[in-house]
Amino acid sequence: MTDKIGTPDIHEDLRRRLITGGFVPGQKLKPDELRGAYGCSINTVREVLLRLSSAGLVTFQDQRGFRARESSLRHQHELTQMRVLLEQEGVAISMRDGGLEWEAQLTAAHHKLSHIEARIAALGAVEPVLDTWCAAEWEFHETLISACGSDLMRQTYAAIYDQFRQQLVTRETNFGYYPNNVAEHLGIVEAALARDEALCRRRIHEHLARNLLPLDATAPMRKLA
Amino acid sequence: MTDKIGTPDIHEDLRRRLITGGFVPGQKLKPDELRGAYGCSINTVREVLLRLSSAGLVTFQDQRGFRARESSLRHQHELTQMRVLLEQEGVAISMRDGGLEWEAQLTAAHHKLSHIEARIAALGAVEPVLDTWCAAEWEFHETLISACGSDLMRQTYAAIYDQFRQQLVTRETNFGYYPNNVAEHLGIVEAALARDEALCRRRIHEHLARNLLPLDATAPMRKLA
DNA sequence: AAAAATATAAATCTTGAAATTTCGACCCGA
DNA sequence: TCGGGTCGAAATTTCAAGATTTATATTTTT
Fold this sequence. Notes:
The structure is a homodimer of 225-residue chains. In chain A, strands 1-3-2 form a 3-stranded antiparallel sheet. Helices cover 64% and strands 4% of the residues of chain A. Chain A is built from 9 helices and 3 strands; from the N terminus they run αβααββαααααα. In chain A, strand 2 and strand 3 (65-68) form a beta hairpin. In chain A, helix 8 (180-193) packs antiparallel against helix 9. Chain A is globular and about 55 Å long. Chain A folds into 2 domains: 8-68, Winged helix-like DNA-binding domain superfamily/Winged helix DNA-binding domain (Arc Repressor Mutant, subunit A), CATH 1.10.10; 73-215, Four Helix Bundle (Hemerythrin (Met), subunit A), CATH 1.20.120.
């Protein structure tokens, strides 16, 4: 799609701050203030924000500047819906086309993730290993669909996932982690390796549907704090 | 997502030129040249191109400027795949949630489209009513998924459709129009109104799969010229 | 003659300031 | 007290020029 901007640090750094809850939702993002932290001009910040806005992390209104995205329940629902759709389709194709290499990468990603989640269970808290866990969770889900053969699908999924993560981390929900993760991730891997598409689709839906809670009362409650 | 830019005309006009084949794929888009046509500054053009690049219509490389998107067969395949996925899911939800109002809008959109396509058949050429047909075709497909209740899904579909249209119009393929359109559009509407989800999904796939030709030899050949 | 190196030209990116628009406080009249 | 209007400050957008990078043409070397 597009490469990095002239000052890669700004783009990466702002993106990170946005998805890790560095800004409160709805907060105004003034190029003139952000400029100082990076020692660059207003216009450069402006370009970066313009890009982040098209990635969905930032909202933009003409003559009214940029804001950190505010998430309504409806938007979070739509986000989850899209994520389920893309992940189900991506994994289905991967199960069909993926070979031994994909299976190996998947088991590797799951191994790392489950190991980290075991540590979380032992510690009783996510915070100490939050960054590690976030990276592992992303790598796991990305690997699931990595053999789908479509860059477009993977890029679209990545954009959705970023917004998704932004919402999760922003809330006081123990950062989106909940104990059932361990069992559910394993279940997904098993179904994928067994090439049981229907089962895999169902388990992905169950795994992600917790976030549908507000609009889908049949889904199980997410663990809060 | 994002609103218009300060000079709406440039954004809309460049977008139009891109999806109607006003630039040859891969062509360099130099802000300094485009500036003249709109009487504005380089930076303004730059911002517009930056946005179009995130919409997928333009590619951007750091320090190497902008280009009109080049479509590989692979990319076109991925585009079609995503379009099928989104349209199938969108119409399925619309069939479930859409009421009388949706049915009315759908039949209206189809009526307009079929009327225009009848004229095309009579004339034996698309060009005279190309713009009208393009708009009607878009409105038909957009209406199909309009009751899905997800702005995110509709926006994502719109972005895919734009790229899709860009590829179609660029080629010398009679602008993507082919006679089977008439029957296929009707078949989709009938299945949708009958709330036959499986049939509707299948017909949408068949309708769009012609563009999968290069990578899916089982799909019927697109009519050329 | 082909390849590498250099010099020149062109295009891109960044910057700071001017022009335009929005936001908020204050004042006035009802 | 409330609604509307005016004014000033702040923020956003546009602009043109300077700095940096890339592309092209020419020369040099093997």
